[in-house]
Amino acid sequence: MKITLAGEKKEYEEGLTVAGLIALQQVETPEYVTVSVNDKFIQGGTFAETVLEDGDVVEFLYFMGGGR
Amino acid sequence: MAIRLKQADFDAMAAHARSGLPNEACGLIAGKIENGTAVVEKIYLLSNPDQSPEHFSIDPAEQLCAVRDMRKAGLTPLGNFHSHPSTPSRPSAEDIRLAHDPKAKYLILSLAGEAPVLNAFEIVDGTVAQQLLEIV
Prior knowledge:
The structure holds 2 protein chains of 2 kinds.
Chain A lengths: L1 E4 L2 E4 L6 H7 L8 E5 L2 E3 L14 E6 L2 E3 L1
Parallel strand pairs in A: 1-5
Antiparallel strand pairs in A: 1-2, 3-4, 3-5
Chain B lengths: L1 E4 L1 H13 L6 E9 L2 E10 L8 E3 L2 H14 L2 E9 L8 H5 L7 E6 L6 E8 L2 E5 L1 E3 L1
Parallel strand pairs in B: 1-3, 1-9, 5-6
Antiparallel strand pairs in B: 2-3, 2-5, 6-7, 7-8
C-alpha cells in the first residue's frame, strides 16, 4: 500500500500500524512525537492499534516546548 | 552554525512577544542552509497553548499547517523561537530538557530589559552552544 509520509509517497506492507511506522522510521524520541493521519491527530496511547490504510497521509510532529 | 535573520522578522518576533505578555510567545523559523549559514526566510508566529509566563509549547495543529507551508514553499524547518518575558535570553533548564532536535536552532527573545534581546542556540544532548546571529 502507498502512504504519504512527510509529503513523500512510499510503499509499505499492508497492516502497518502507526507504532510500526514510527519504528520503521527509527524515530529517536517517539514519546515526543504527535502523529496526524489524514489531518486527524492520533491519541498517543493508540499508536499500536491504529492500522494505516492505502492512501493515508501521515505526518510526524515533534514536540517543541520549554519554559523560563 | 551562524543564523541570519531579517530585521523585519526580528521586529515581528518582538511585536509578537510583546503582544503575548505576560505569557511566553512562540513560533517557528524556516529557510535555507547557504554556505554553512541558516538563513531564515520565513517566521511563523504561533499561539502558546500553555498561556503561561513560564512555559510554552507549539500547538500541533498550527505546527502541521506551518510544516506544510514550508514544504510547499521549498523551505527547510530551521527551529523555533520563544520569548522570556522577564528572564534573560538563554535556555532555561526546561528549555534544555525539552530540546530534542540536535539540528534545530533555538532562538530566545528576552523582554526583561528595555530593548528585546535575541540569541540563538543549538542544544545537543543537554549541551548548549550559542550560535552567531546576524540580523540584517
